[in-house]
């Protein structure tokens, strides 16, 4: 048995620590002997499992000549579940794809992430990024994240369908309700929303209604736990949510966000509040979008603009190499190459990327984001993956039983308190 | 039952069987449809297209072909090692007066009955401390370790039923414990080993949770994990997902039908006695 | 019997020690770690903080946990009961050789070669709002019965259960078929001559002879029912709002999404405690059989 001598060492190492949870942590030291070999190659752990983005990243990574890079693409749900394990392992991946905002800060405050501040100073590849992006990537005064692209959310629809039904995008809430009623009168579901295997989609409406009713500051504070989810202000948000429930295709409760695109495509549904990534599921020129309508004119315009990028593991065996690779990925040429190849509608974070060649849809997205007074990320990115789960339970329950809203909000608050209290 | 006419029997069984295989037929049909056909007419509509696209995507960019090879590299050694080690243990426990043998056997079995979830986090740490995290060897090791209890229990039951006279005679002829194991016990256990081998193959080949616990390199993912990975990428491409799941099911189906007889007889021999 | 059990030569100790060491390292040592962790609060980094019985106390007031516990009991009974009943009924029906029996048998146990993830995938398509099940119901004029099977909290758990039983029943059938083969047909014939009804013959002649098989079926079913994770994860992930949550899925969520490794380990310990009840029942039966033999 080859394993016999090794495992004996493992047992002995473990036995010494039986009283302390240090056992598991300490085990990591047992594999130091292989470190020399590990640093020769960099590992890039990616959650971009959709075919086009995956192919795009593969192509971009191929262009990196300094160090061989192993690209590991893991389906996003598995990736999400295993991310803490990846970061916490003795020989973690060097660079990982993930999200900016509270989510990244959360991992940084646990000590998992490498300090990337070098990349943000002097001639560093991120030195020219906007202050807002820098703020988004900062934890405790250090930059721990490098954003490489972002996107917008909006109410997506098919131009040809709107033409057929003789309707136009809405600008105010009242117009929006009328629009929904008109579409419904044509025997079409005004809204589609895939909250089956992707329950987080239901948070899109919650985020937006909260932004429109209570504004971005309240929204951020709420997600940071500084307000209660059973606050009367949240109740007002839910009252608005309730108004649109009758317009949502009920079958969406069984769909993933991708499945819910099909009725939109087939003109059996009118609109879809979703991120610009919808273009990967529904390519073509017929797709257009409009801003989520204004509810209260006194509330400054805010939009969701989730930002994606990379961070590096604090335990990387080749920290310098990891930083260099991230720097490469953040460079304008690579950003542009990635966005083009992935056929996504994501926007570059570098101002040096020439966006004039991007599609009219993307131009419109850039313009909308430019007009908004503040930007938020998305529910989980502004809070944490844990709070998202609590929100998923509350919101999917609400979709089924809106009359129980008071109990649902109370449960939501109790769940949030548990998460934040831990 | 004998009195009833064959018609009555078939009238019940034929529709029931059809109902039973309907989901499979449906998946096969979906696998051969084109993506556009599915998006346009829905997944359960009557097929209007026939194409191998689903299969070629699944095996090509979907990496199911590579995953098959990986699975073979994990399953074959894991099954062989499992059977070898469990037959060692079963032999020792069934033919020798080892103190507390009953307790040992039951403890080993109990270990196999543990819910795997309880082991997930510590197991990945143990693999790291052995320096084999993210290697196929680690996956083989955990499969062997986690299955041993059950295999040992079944083989133990079988070996106990082998008449003492056989081994006694060999012992008098001067055979040592290793010879008795190799020349007498093992050949007699062949049906039982074949049965367990078939069972272990399906278990190990179909595993998902251990693979995603000890592996993180995409190129090392065995079939089920690769299928999940593919499903994450081709979410509403039901034709690709269906084709990939058929690909994933073929090897176990072959093993199962090939070992059908052994499977049935062997597994029970140890326990009906 | 005991005369065959020779004094133990050293090489035999090695035979036992190697497998025992592997299982110790891969199963018992990690399990022990989990037990320890269940008394701590730990996020995977640094040292775990011992908190005594806090985790278990918190479980007592955790509604989701209690719901999952209830679901787990329903699952164990439903999964075990239905797959054994279906499997046994099919085995009895397909026991006597006649034309077409082989085909029926093969068709029914084919699903068991699929992994649970594949099974979940297969069935998710059937349960879609426009999937086969609703289409068939609509076609039969039973449109009123159409449901969003996996999105409805009243049906989600049962919808998953049907898929799981579909896969398991063929397996149980194979085991019982083998058991029936080893029963003594002359007993059955004799009682038929004596005028016993088919049910009486099954209940008083065949069933007692299936004792050994029952033990195996019981073991296999319990192992599989406690292992249930993949299929729920693939089909509903415990949703909608925890209505199909099992202890294993809730534990996975707590451990991996929430990084509450201590709390998750406490749930794992509860799963273990449940398993223990079955394990002990099983061991008692196994011991009894042995005394009789």
Topology of this structure?
The complex is a heterotrimer of chains A (422), B (273) and C (293).
Chain A: H1 3-15, H2 22-27, H3 35-38, E1 42-46, H4 51-62, E2 69-73, H5 76-88, E3 95-99, H6 102-109, H7 131-136, E4 138-139, E5 142-143, E6 146-150, E7 153-158, H8 159-165, H9 173-185, E8 189-191, H10 202-213, H11 215-223, H12 232-245, H13 261-265, E9 269-275, H14 278-281, E10 287-290, E11 302-304, E12 307-312, H15 319-330, H16 332-341, E13 347-348, H17 360-371, E14 374-376, H18 379-382, H19 385-400, H20 405-421
Parallel strand pairs in A: 1-2, 1-3, 8-9, 11-14
Antiparallel strand pairs in A: 3-12, 4-5, 6-12, 6-13, 7-9, 7-10
Helix pairs in contact in A: 4-16, 10-11, 10-12, 19-20
Chain B: H1 6-31, H2 35-41, H3 53-59, H4 64-95, H5 101-113, H6 120-129, H7 136-160, H8 164-172, H9 177-188, H10 190-206, H11 209-214, H12 223-233, H13 238-258, H14 260-272
Chain C: H1 10-37, E1 40-41, E2 49-50, H2 54-60, H3 63-93, H4 101-109, H5 116-127, H6 132-139, H7 156-181, H8 185-193, H9 198-209, H10 211-227, H11 230-235, H12 247-257, H13 261-292
Antiparallel strand pairs in C: 1-2
Helix pairs in contact in C: 1-13, 3-7, 3-10, 5-7, 7-10, 8-9, 10-13, 12-13
Any descriptors?
heterotrimer, A: 422 residues, alpha/beta, D-Maltodextrin-Binding Protein, domain 2, 14% strand, C: 293 residues, MetI-like fold
């Amino acid at each position: 048995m080859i394993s016999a001598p090794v495992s004996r060492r493992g047992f002995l190492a473990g036995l010494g620590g039986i009283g302390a949870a240090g056992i598991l942590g300490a085990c990591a030291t047992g594999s130091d002997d292989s470190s020399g070999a590990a640093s020769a190659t960099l590992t890039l752990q990616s959650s971009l499992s959709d075919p086009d983005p995956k192919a795009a990243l593969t192509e971009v990574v191929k262009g990196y000549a300094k160090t061989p890079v192993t690209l590991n693409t893991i389906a996003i749900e598995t990736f999400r579940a295993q991310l803490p394990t990846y970061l916490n392992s003795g020989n973690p991946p060097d660079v990982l794809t993930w999200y900016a905002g509270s989510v990244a800060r959360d991992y940084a405050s646990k000590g998992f992430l490498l300090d990337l501040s070098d990349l943000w100073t002097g001639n560093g590849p991120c030195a020219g990024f906007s202050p807002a992006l820098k703020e988004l990537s900062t934890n405790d005064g250090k930059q721990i994240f490098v954003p490489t692209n972002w996107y917008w959310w909006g109410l997506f629809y098919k131009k040809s369908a709107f033409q057929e039904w003789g309707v136009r995008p809405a600008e105010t809430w009242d117009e929006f309700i009328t629009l929904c009623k008109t579409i419904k009168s044509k025997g079409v579901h005004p809204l589609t929303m895939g909250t089956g295997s992707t329950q987080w989609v239901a948070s899109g409406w919650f985020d937006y209604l909260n932004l429109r009713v209570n504004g971005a500051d309240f929204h951020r504070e709420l997600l940071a736990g500084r307000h209660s989810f059973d606050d009367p202000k949240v109740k007002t948000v839910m009252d608005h949510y309730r108004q649109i429930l009758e317009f949502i295709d009920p079958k969406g409760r069984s769909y993933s966000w991708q499945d819910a695109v099909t009725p939109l495509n087939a003109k059996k549904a009118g609109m879809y509040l979703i991120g610009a990534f919808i273009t990967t599921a529904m390519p073509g020129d017929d797709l257009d979008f409009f801003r989520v309508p204004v509810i209260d004119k006194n509330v400054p315009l805010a939009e969701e603009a989730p930002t994606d990028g990379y961070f590096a593991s604090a335990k990387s065996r080749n920290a310098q190499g990891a930083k260099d690779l991230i720097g490469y990925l953040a460079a304008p040429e690579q950003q542009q190459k990635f966005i083009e190849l992935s056929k996504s509608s994501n926007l570059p974070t570098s101002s040096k990327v020439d966006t004039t060649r991007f599609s009219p849809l993307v131009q419109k997205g850039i313009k909308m984001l430019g007009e908004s007074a503040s930007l938020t990320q998305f529910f989980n990115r502004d809070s944490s993956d844990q709070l998202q789960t609590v929100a998923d339970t509350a919101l999917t329950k609400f979709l089924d039983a809106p009359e129980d809203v008071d109990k649902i909000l109370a449960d939501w608050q109790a769940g949030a308190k548990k998460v934040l209290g831990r | 039952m004998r009195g009833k006419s064959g018609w009555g029997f078939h009238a019940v069984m034929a529709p029931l069987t059809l109902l039973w295989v309907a989901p499979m037929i449906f998946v096969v049909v979906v696998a051969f449809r084109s993506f556009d056909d599915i998006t346009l007419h829905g997944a359960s509509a009557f097929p209007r297209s026939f194409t191998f696209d689903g299969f070629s995507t699944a095996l090509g960019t979907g990496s199911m072909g590579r995953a098959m090879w990986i699975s073979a590299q994990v399953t074959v050694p894991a099954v062989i090692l499992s059977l070898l080690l469990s037959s060692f243990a079963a032999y020792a426990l069934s033919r020798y007066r080892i103190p507390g043998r009953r307790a040992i056997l039951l403890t080993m079995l109990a270990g196999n009955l543990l819910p795997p979830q309880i082991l997930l986090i510590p197991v990945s740490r143990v693999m790291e401390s052995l320096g084999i995290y993210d290697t196929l060897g680690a996956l083989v090791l955990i499969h062997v370790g986690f299955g041993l209890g059950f295999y040992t229990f079944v083989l133990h039951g079988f070996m106990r039923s082998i008449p003492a006279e056989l081994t006694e005679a060999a012992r008098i002829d001067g055979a040592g414990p290793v010879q008795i194991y190799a020349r007498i016990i093992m050949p007699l256990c062949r049906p039982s080993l074949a049965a367990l081998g078939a069972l272990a193959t399906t278990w190990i080949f179909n595993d998902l949770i251990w693979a995603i616990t000890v592996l993180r390199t995409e190129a090392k993912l065995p079939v089920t994990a690769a299928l999940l990975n593919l499903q994450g990428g081709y979410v509403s491409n039901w034709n690709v997902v269906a084709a990939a799941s058929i690909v994933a099911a073929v090897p176990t189906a072959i093993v199962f039908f090939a070992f059908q007889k052994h499977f049935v007889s062997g597994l029970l021999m140890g326990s009906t006695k | 019997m005991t005369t065959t059990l020779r004094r133990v030569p050293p090489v035999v100790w090695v035979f036992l020690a190697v497998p025992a060491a592997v299982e110790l390292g891969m199963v018992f040592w990690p399990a022990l770690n989990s037990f320890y962790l269940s008394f701590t609060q730990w996020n995977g980094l640094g040292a775990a903080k011992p908190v005594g019985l806090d985790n278990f106390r918190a479980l007592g007031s955790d509604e989701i946990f209690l719901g999952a516990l209830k679901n787990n009991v329903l699952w164990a009974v439903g999964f075990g009961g239905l797959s054994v009943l279906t499997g046994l009924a099919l085995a009895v029906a397909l026991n006597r050789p006649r034309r077409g029996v082989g085909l029926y048998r093969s068709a029914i146990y084919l699903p068991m070669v699929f992994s649970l993830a594949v099974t979940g995938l297969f069935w998710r398509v059937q349960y879609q709002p426009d999937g086969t099940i609703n289409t068939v119901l609509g076609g039969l004029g039973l449109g009123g019965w159409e449901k969003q099977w996996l999105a409805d909290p009243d049906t989600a758990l049962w919808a998953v259960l049907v898929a799981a039983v579909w896969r398991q029943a063929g397996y149980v059938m194979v085991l019982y078929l083998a058991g029936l083969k080893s029963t003594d047909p002359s007993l059955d014939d004799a009682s038929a001559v004596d005028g016993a009804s088919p049910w009486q013959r099954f209940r008083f002649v065949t069933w007692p002879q299936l004792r050994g098989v029952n033990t195996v079926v019981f073991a296999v079913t319990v192992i599989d029912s406690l292992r249930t994770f993949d299929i729920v994860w693939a089909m509903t992930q415990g949703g909608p709002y925890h209505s199909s949550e099992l202890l294993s899925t809730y534990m996975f969520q707590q451990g991996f999404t929430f990084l509450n490794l201590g709390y998750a380990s406490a749930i794992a310990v509860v799963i273990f405690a449940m398993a223990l009840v079955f394990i002990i029942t099983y061991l008692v039966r196994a011991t009894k059989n042995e005394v009789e033999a």
